[in-house]
Design goal:
Strand order of the largest sheet: 8-9-10-13-12-11
Distance between the termini: 39 Å
Structural class: alpha+beta
Radius of gyration: 30 Å
CATH architecture of the largest domain: 2-Layer Sandwich
Strand content: 5-15%
């Protein structure tokens, strides 16, 4: 580690400036060779035609026209450089599907606090924060020539790491920003990586569209053929951009990761947390096939496993953007005088699905007075759905005579404090009971629960967060149902119901339109109701818990 730290700050800065100029030079050279080869072929064809009519004609591969080709290449390269780097951060964030942190999400709030702390550690530098809504584990940093700086992490990383580990990862990414290393990575990705990633998404869309055409439909065959004509040029372009993107990796030193690791330890004084965070990322799914395979230089670990990354020597040093994983861990642990095997053994311990005790005690029920009449009985949760409930509302226990005001009940005191918040002012009706839904904390975020049928309404983009978080336990009954469904799914002829009950379709609590009743997926045969327009999903009682339990059991297997 000492050898790598021997370079002075000015040496590193000069090296970075050289690499940025080299990126532009590579672009000019690429276009010069491409245009020169094309022009040489055209010039040779013209020479053949002239030589048939005029004897003694000479063919010169180089001439004054070569200078013109160089000028054209320089102009094209400049245009490419300019347009590739306009709003490059925004383009990459869009490709990754990055989102702003949710102010009402407990995990996102922790992430915001951690970034605030690291910003203070580096002298008050301000960066933007983003979340990738995926269960993969990774983190990234971006910067552009205009001074925009971004740190982002995935939902999977935020949910599976401890606070200290998240802090170490954020410190690592902040180190890239402070040293300007991420500017080189972002510029390199802007030239060909973002086009390769966009084409990869287009390629995936082609495959999905082609598979959706009915095999017996003649028109569908014609559409599939037309789609194929577009597919092959896109595939060829994707191949070229991949090759060029890999060539640009030679301008990104894998040494930057060692430097960022060292800086992260300096900021946090906690090498063990950084090592354990990297170990967890390296031994989980990092996002291959979904999270920017062609944008690997911006991530803390390559989303796609590459055998080249794990090697040392001339070629890996030249073309790989990340150093060998095990060596990187060992260097960090040497700073803490810790052993890699001990850390690995501790982190490899499997955790079973958390079991929650069955609720046996009956919940208290209250009668509530309104306009001199008593209504009910209501549970404490059901009382929160009543429009006319105020702190002065008179309550009495069902079957009792003692009368008390609503604000004397501790659980309702908390409700009266919270009900003034904006989220409580949003009114949505349960699609089953037609009663008001109430916002409720669930796995660190808010969902909408019916206090009468216990159904849950949530946005589609919240489900990845719910699935990767393991705060909630499951009763023995939920686990038995999930086990049966998992075993049934693995059979060749599963006995799940193919005909879903659509006699009385549910209506969306937001727009009022009919919701689609279907299975969550082919792998998980849990029935849901989905409004595709509002991107809302309704789970009947226990359906969300069963789905969560199925997913956690699958991960454990």
């Amino acid at each position: 580690m000492g050898m790598r730290s021997a370079q002075t700050f000015w040496d590193i800065e000069k090296q970075k400036t050289w690499r940025i100029y080299s990126l532009y030079t590579f672009l000019v050279l690429f276009y010069f060779i491409s245009v020169f080869l094309l022009w040489s072929i055209i010039k040779f064809l013209i020479y053949i035609r002239i030589s048939v009519q005029t004897r003694g004609a000479l063919f010169n591969i180089f001439g004054y026209d070569t200078l013109i080709v160089l000028i054209i290449a320089g102009i094209v390269a400049t245009v490419h450089w300019y347009y590739s780097n306009i709003n490059v951060v925004r383009k990459i964030l869009q490709l990754l599907g990055a989102q702003y942190p949710d102010k009402r999400d407990k995990y996102h709030y922790v992430f915001q606090n951690v970034v605030d702390e690291i910003e203070l550690s580096v002298g008050g530098l301000r960066v933007e924060r983003y979340i990738l809504p995926t269960g993969a584990m990774n983190a990234f940093a971006l910067a552009d020539l205009k001074g925009r700086m971004v740190i982002g992490i995935t939902e999977g990383l935020l949910s599976r790491l401890t606070r200290h580990e998240v802090q170490s990862v954020v410190a690592h990414e902040m180190a890239h920003i402070v040293s300007n290393d991420c500017l080189q990575s972002t510029l390199a990705c802007s030239l060909f990586g973002i086009y390769g990633e966009a084409l990869a998404h287009l390629n995936l869309a082609f495959k999905k569209a082609e598979s959706s055409f009915p095999s017996h439909d003649k028109t569908a065959h014609q559409n599939a053929a037309a789609l194929g004509l577009l597919y092959f040029p896109a595939l060829a372009t994707l191949l070229v951009t991949d090759i060029l993107s890999d060539l640009l990796h030679m301008f990104i030193s894998r040494e930057k990761e060692y430097r960022a690791d060292a800086s992260a330890v300096k900021y946090t004084r906690n090498p063990i947390s950084l090592a354990s965070a990297l170990y967890k990322i390296g031994t989980h799914w990092r996002g291959t096939g979904l999270t920017g395979d062609r944008l690997a230089p911006i991530f803390i670990l390559n989303p796609k496993f590459s055998s080249l990354d794990e090697k040392e020597g001339f070629l890996p040093t030249l073309f790989s953007t990340h150093p060998p994983f095990i060596k990187r861990l060992q260097i960090i642990l040497d700073l803490a005088h810790a052993d890699l095997n001990q850390v690995a053994e501790e982190l490899q311990k499997k955790s079973d699905v958390k079991t929650e005790a069955e609720q046996k005690e009956p919940q208290p029920a209250f009668l509530a007075e309104h306009n001199n009449k008593w209504f009910g009985p209501f549970t404490l949760l059901q009382l929160q759905t009543i429009d006319w409930l105020i702190p002065e509302t008179r309550l009495r226990l069902s079957g009792g005579d003692e009368v008390l005001s609503a604000d004397e009940v501790p659980a309702l005191q908390y409700y009266f404090q919270k009900c003034s918040e904006p989220i409580w002012k949003i009114r949505r009706l349960c699609p089953v009971c037609r009663e008001w839904l109430i916002p409720q904390a669930y796995e660190g975020l808010y969902v909408w629960r019916c206090a009468f049928c216990n159904g849950i309404l949530t946005e589609q983009d919240k489900l990845p967060r719910i699935f990767v978080r393991k705060e909630k336990g499951f009763t023995a009954r939920i686990q038995r149902i999930a086990t049966f469904m998992m075993q049934d799914t693995k059979k060749k002829n599963p006995r799940f119901r193919l005909l879903l009950n659509m006699a009385h379709p549910q209506h969306c609590p937001r727009c009022g339109k009919g919701m689609s009743h279907k299975f969550y997926s082919y792998a998980y045969h849990v029935e849901i109701d989905e409004c595709q327009g509002c991107r809302l999903i309704w789970f009947d009682a226990e359906e969300l818990e069963i789905l969560q339990c199925l997913i956690e059991m699958g991960e454990a297997d």
